[in-house]
Amino acid sequence: MAPMRGERGGSPARGARPSLPLPRKLIRQIARHVASSGRSLRRLEVSGRVIDNFDDIDDPSDESDMEVPQATVACGGNAGNLPPAEHDDDLTSLSWLQDRNLLRGINLTKGDVEDTKMIGSQVVIKSEPSKTPSPVARMPSPPRTPCKAPPSPPAVAAHTKPPYSFSCLIFMAIEAAPARALPVKEIYAWIVRHFPYFKHAPQGWKNSVRHNLSLNKCFHKVAAAPGLGKGSLWTVDPQHRASLLQAFGRQPIPPAAPDTPPPAKNAPDPQLFPYLARRLAASPPPAPTADEYLAAASVLTMKYGPAVLDQLPPAAHLVISRCVRDEHSYSGGCEERRTAEALLNLAGVPPRPPPPAPS
DNA sequence: GTTAAGCTAAACACCG
DNA sequence: TCGGTGTTTAGCTTAA
Fold first, then answer.
1. Span CA (A273) to C1' (C12), Å
2. How many domains does chain A have?
3. Within a domain: A38
4. What is the tens place of the pLDDT at every residue in A191-227?
5. Which residue spans within chain A are E strands per DSSP?
6. Which residue segment(s) compose the domain that A44 sits in?
7. Would A29 be classed as within a structural domain?
8. What residues approach strand C to within 7 A at the CB?
9. Is A120 domain-assigned?
């Protein structure tokens, strides 16, 4: 029988481990990710540095995270009334980030893997029996010139429902607005602009947006601006901002990577589960968009404080800094950047200075 | 098994 | 009258 959640398990030696630069839960999530391909995590490296060896971290019944000294997690940068990271039990979002390769560069090494191959910044874990790269562990490399080639794949995203709830979409739209307030029509437009899926989605999604605005206490209607015509302006209630930010951490896990199709026997019957079937049918998943990178940075920061960003590999820093540098290539500022700034500011992350220009 | 959250659909009223 | 907006209700699925 598996131990109850919170029960201590595993070897006693774990308690004597050195401080981990990443929360143990995050490492466990990575271990599960590796385990999903039939492997087990034996060693973890971050940015080329061996963090720890552990033989039992892939035990799915082990839910303890008491070994993580909070001091190493540095939550002091949480903005405003954000809840402390230790209150958040849910790392679903992090599995999403891993699935989306947003934690690329974290070097996973399996004990019985004899070689970890680096191709550029792409990490390939070689499987001993088959000598073929693990489809799960194979991480695509980030753009070589991330500042020039932001990963915005509208052609793919057009067919993929974004992994955000409507409240998150509305939140992002409003936060991206200069006045932090938008009429419903502009919220529609922002969503369509950033998630082309909705361009051809059934009309019901607009109803869902309005339903969300009306029902969700996080959104408030304010007096209509003169000349606005029908409708009101909608804003985010500052008191509920933290809960909306937390909602980013509860996003559903998107479909598996294109080269790891789920077993057909697990495919939901579209007749019985139309919603789930539609969600899962939206594969292959698109490459992460700039907004997803930003959401990833924000989620990580919200959970563990800004210091966690310094524990991520340089590739992640590139991803984050890219959006700041993009500021210089846009005239007047794009909504993506505003979204980025809003999210990162809310998460307490100061903008990273652009790297020095090559001489 | 229960509960909460979220999605979808539908109906209705209000307003420009 | 029409279409957009806002509200409410109900049923469903999923995750905790």
1. 9
2. 1
3. yes
4. 888 887 887 777 788 888 888 888 888 888 876 655 5
5. 43-46, 49-53, 106-109, 116-119, 122-125, 181-183, 219-222, 233-236
6. 12-72+105-125
7. yes
8. A 89-90, 92, 183-185, 188, 206-207, 210-211, 213-215, 221, 230-232, 234, 250, 252-253, 268, 272-273, 275-276
9. yes
* Over residues A2-13, mean pLDDT: 30
Measured from the Cβ of residue A147, the count of other Cβ atoms closer than 10 Å reads 17
Read off the tokens for A188.
């529609």
Tell me the CA end-to-end span of chain A in Å, nearest whole number: 62
- CA A359 to chain CA centroid, Å, is 34
Contact present, A170 and A187 (Cβ < 8 Å): yes
Give the CA A164 to C1' C10 distance in Å: 24
Q: φ and ψ at A109, to 5 degrees? A: -130, 125
Q: Which nucleotides of B are covered by protein (CB under 7 A)?
A: 5-11, 15-16
Measuring CA to CA, how many Å separate A304 from each of A23, A27, A318, A327? 8, 13, 19, 26
- How far is residue A64's CA from residue A327's CA, in Å, rounded to a whole number? 42
- Residue A342, in any domain of the structure: no
- Gap from A230 CA to B15 C1', in Å? 7
Distance CA A308, CA A102 (A): 14
Q: Write out the DSSP string of A120-170.
A: TTEEEEBPTTT-SB-TTT--PPPPSSTTTS----HHHHTTS--SS-HHHHH
Between these two residues, A303 and A69, which has the higher pLDDT value?
A303
* Residue (of A73, A67, A31) closest to A311 by Cα position: A73
